[in-house]
Amino acid sequence: MNESLMFQNAPHVRQSESVRTMMTDVIIALVPIYVMAFFYYGPRALLLGLSGILFCVVFSAIGALVLHEKISFDLTPAITGLVIPLLMPATVDYFVIAAACAVAIFVVKLPFGGTGNNLFNPAAVGFASAAICWPAKVFSYPAPLQTLEIFGENTAAMAQSPAYSLALGAVPEYEVLDMLLGSVPGPMGATNIFVVATCGIFLMVRKTVNWITPVSFLLPYSLLLALFPRIEASSFDSLCYELFSGIAIFGAFFMLSEPVTSPKRDFGKFMAGITSAVAAFLFRYFGELEMGFAYALIIMNVFSPLFDEICEEILHVLRRGGKLKKVFFEKKPKEKTEKEEKLPFVRVLKKKKAEEAPAEAVEENTEAEELSEEEITEEPVIEVSFDETSEEEISEEENEEQEEKEPSEDEKTEEEAAV
Amino acid sequence: MSFFVRGIILEQKKEPMLTRSTLVMRHEYEYFDCDFPDIALDELSREQIIELARLAEIVDESDGKLLCEKLEKTDLGEGGTLIIDAVDDEPYISSQMSGCIHHPEKVALGIELCEKVLSPEKTYVAMYKHIFDTNFSIPKKIGNYKVEKIGGRYPAEGRVYRHIPKGKNAVVVGACAMLHLARAAEDSRKMTSCFITVAGDAILNPRNVEVPVGTSVERIIQLCGLNEKPEVIIMGGSMTGRSIFEPENEVVGPTTRGIIALSRGYHNPSPCIGCGRCDHACPKALSVSTMRKLAEFGDFEKLTRYDAALCIGCGACSYVCPSRIDVAATIIKAKKQMELAKKEGTL
Amino acid sequence: MNQLKEKFGIKDSLAYIFFKNPVLVLGLVIGQLAAGDTTLQNGAALSVTYFLVTVPVLVFASVFGKKLPQWLRVVCYALVSTVMLVPAYFICGSFSATIFDSLGIYPVLLAVSTVPIVYSSKIAENSEPLSALMNGIGISLGFALTAIILGAAREFFGSGGLWGFKFADAVYPAVRLPFWGFILLGFMAAIVNLISEAVKKSEETKNSEEGNA
Questions:
Q1: What angle do CA A395, A399, A404 make, to 5 degrees?
Q2: Which of A62, A172, A176, A309 pairs as cysteine with A162 (C-beta 3.0–4.6 A)?
Q3: What is the pLDDT of residues A371-398, one digit of tens each?
Q4: Handedness of CA A350, A351, A356, A361 (dihedral sign)
Q5: Interface of A with C (CB under 8 A)
């Protein structure tokens, strides 16, 4: 019985969800979009998706061989390979997909350390580079409801996409219902708004995608679009046309909320959503390219560590509750000037917390103090007092803080005088 | 709102251990001689009850301290509260709760004696109520004492104090210690046994057992039987316990809550995908994912800035990690190294 | 001969060409290369400019540096290096008339980059003129190697030609973007790192074998 017992670290029960189930969820959510693409454009759509998977998986296997790593059965390259063709028209050549996948794997993913370490969204960068290289191929869309030839020259009838006519300042000649159902020319996967939104909600219900990111992107984005219409129509019509014509809704669910490159904290996710909404709107309003969303996403990815840092700074203060004095005065004298500069900001936050924070949050802070007291006292008695965190006390402490601060400044001036 | 709700919802898996009767391992009871054998239970004085606890050598299982010292030194003051700890918020573990449920009279008697010593204004038994996966309902009263249900997400021990009036003191004693106190008063019996939950998917007959202190883990597992070869054996709680290699040499003590044998451990963590679930789960609102990276890097100065000292080691972050990374273990290890460095003055 | 080499620091200077490459290993003037070095001609022009801008400044610093007051030195170095842009303009104009216009601000940025301003006042001041000259030549050769390889690669893949002659279609036009310049420089740095590590390893094994013998 005692042979082959394994060592295992502390929590011995784990959630049933794993990375694999999350990735499978995303793949399951992408399948209906491919089914719709098959309905509109024929088997070529499916073949493009399969080739995307093939390219990405083969490229990451090659990368693993070059780096002398074990070839892992990771599903993330497959997702990248599935997302890239959906952003492009169904008539796009296979080598464009191959180039986009190569950029995604060899440039964005592997040099930064593989799965979990990439700085940018691989699919977004792959698509963006393809769009720069071959704009004629990536931005010319076939009319839907025709079966495209699988290989060889493209003979399909082409049509103007609503995004393009919007960029020219013209009202698109399609009805909003058609745009919702996807029977308008456009990227293979992003036009079927109904299906895309349903799949996105499936992901949010499964909690594979955090609800904060898509919501905090789509709400400000649609607000901005409604406030600043580019075409001469009512703001609601303009909003419908603008929102349903690009890749924004597809991207919000499948690219923006990708866990690796988005911020980790909830508030950071909010900030990232709003930032990318503003950036995407600016790209759309002033930019010449139709699919500004990919660039907005790349810009957001650059800032996401910064958002996390800001959150940590805020939480660092909030965690203390009423014990700010201890944190900011009993530290190394070296950092004193920095702390004093930061103080006004801190005090504002604390006041806000005392006024606005709901009861739950305050109570949790009381627990924190109790626990720390429990740990410190060596007597067998666990004594708990509750009078420390009432709001009056906080304000009193604040007064103390101010009182304490003044003499310290006096001391400083004295020191300066002495020098 | 997800901003203010912290911690995790755990599948409690307490059945069938909780509703099954406690299995008592046969052993010789030890008795003590006391100076006042004939006094009725109602007439015992404060000093006599403390003497009983001392003679019976009762250890409080909630914190591992001697009950007699605890009773002697505690001064609740006016309007204090006595809390009986039966909060089993970790999955599988139900040793304290089953003690309360299957021996309510004895526990009530113990509480009565304890009340006589401490003279609190209010007394309640704290139990964890979020046991979704069973039909079992928590009793409203143990004897004459009210049961306060502690709700909420996993690290629930801190919320025990939620029902105390403001500005008053409180003391927590374990439920099984009350049971032992009652036995000492009624039968002059020493505390020679402890209550342990034996569970896990490799155990044939999972249930709560009462075994003598010092029994080896192997013996206890033999008592309940194995249905397959376990890969991991855990002593302690399922969230905070440690895995052991030599079950024949490990013995249980008064503070051991459970023994869990799992047929399959967790292998091969995959790389972190940065989903941020650990940040979301942390009951202390720490930036866990960044802290793990810093801990692996050994950047202690920055870890102090990220409040690593506030970590309570609940293991919620490791539980939710979809990559099966030992987040909590990494951070706790770094925290210990940090404390060591602080003592030496190198940090 | 070996003594002569050591005296003038020829070995150290030669290291700047590959193992201490100013761009790929030391990480200087990356931005100028990534943004400006899109064709082979651009690469050549940038190399010539860098040579003319760096070498005279280093020699000037080692000869006159100590004689000037501290506050004037950096100003003088900047002056010398920017004056040297004028001959660079004429030399580059000999192989393509518009090259300096198409390069825009990047040659000027080279004139006030790290080596003419900081390296000269930190190291070249304290060294002899000849060794400063050798260092300058080594650094500019290392820069030229990187710039020409990068420019050729980007022109070949980005516009399907070399030295202005087109002989094929563009394979991948995006390489002309600064983003790809950075990426390619990163890959080149990785290759240099790989080679120098391999060389170091083989030298170590050689040394240990000798020690064992």
A1: 145
A2: A172
A3: 444 444 343 444 433 443 434 444 444 4
A4: positive
A5: 99, 107, 111, 129, 132-133
- Which residue of B8, B275, B278 to mutate against A (max A Cβ within 10 Å)? B275
pLDDT band at A355 (very low <50, low <70, confident <90, very high): low
Closest by Cβ to B167, choosing from A7, A308, A387? A387
**pLDDT value of residue A321:** 63
**What is the DSSP-derived secondary structure letter of residue A153?**
S
Which domain does B284 fall in, by range? 277-344
The C-alpha of A166 sits at a distance from chain B's nearest C-alpha, in angstroms, of 36
**CB–CB of A107 and C183 under 8 A?**
yes
pLDDT at A401 over 50: no
**Record: contact B70-A370, CB cut-off 8 A:** no
Cis omega (within 30 of 0) for bond into B16: yes
> Could you identify the residue written with the tokens 């987040």?
B327
With CB atoms and an 8 Å threshold, state whether A111 touches C177: no
Q: Are residues B324 and B255 in the same domain?
A: no
How many structural domains are present in chain A? 2
Residue A373 in any domain: the answer is: yes
Compare B1 and A6 and report the one with higher pLDDT.
A6
Q: How confident is the model at residue B4 (pLDDT cuts 50, 70, 90)?
A: low
CATH number at residue B160: 3.40.50
Which range of A212-216, B239-243, B299-303, C12-16 scores highest in mean pLDDT? It is A212-216
Check whether residue B209 and residue B294 sit in a common domain.
no
**Which has more confidence, C1 or C12?**
C12
Crossing angle of the two packed helices C40-64 and C85-95, in degrees rounded to 10: 150
pLDDT band at A48 (very low <50, low <70, confident <90, very high): very high
Q: Which of A18, A261, A385 sits opposite B322 (nearest CB)?
A: A18
d(CA B91, CA B262): 13
Residue whose tokens read 């918020």 = B89
User: Is A398 inside any structural domain?
Assistant: yes
| N-to-C CA span, chain C | 28
Please name the residue of chain B whose CA is at the shortest distance from the CA of residue A72.
Answer: B270
**How far apart, in whole angstroms, are the C-alpha atoms of residue B307 and residue B274?**
20
Chain A residues near residue C189 by CB distance under 8 angstroms: none
pLDDT of C180 reads 87
> Which one of A11, A262, A358 has the shortest CB-CB distance to B318?
A11
Contact (CB<8Å) B329/A10: yes
Phi and psi for B272 in degrees, rounded to 5? -65, 130
Q: Quickly tell me which residue has 């409203």 as its tokens.
A: B140
pLDDT digits (tens, 9 = 90+) for A78-107: 999 999 999 999 889 999 999 999 999 998
Residue of A nearest to C179 (CA): A129
Nearest CA-CA partner of C14 in C129, C191, C134: C134
Burial B94-111, CB ≥16 within 10 A → b, else e = bbbbbbbbbbbebbbbbb
Q: Three-class SS of residue B169?
A: coil
* A201 and A326 in a common domain: no
Phi, psi for C163 (deg, rounded to 5): 55, 40
Residue A263: the pLDDT is 92
Q: How far from the centroid of its chain's Cα atoms is residue B12's Cα? A: 14
Among residues A295, A313, A331, the one where a domain terminates is A313
A1 at interface of B, judged by CB pairs closer than 8 A:
yes
Two structure tokens written together for B149: 């249900």
pLDDT score recorded for residue B81: 87
Cβ <8 Å between C187 and A133? no
Residues of C with CB under 8 A from a CB of A: 172-174, 177, 183, 186-187, 190
Structure tokens, B63? 């914190």
Confidence tier at A3 by pLDDT (50, 70, 90): low
pLDDT(A363) > 70:
no
CA distance B127 to chain A (A): 17
B347 inside 8 A of chain A by CB: no
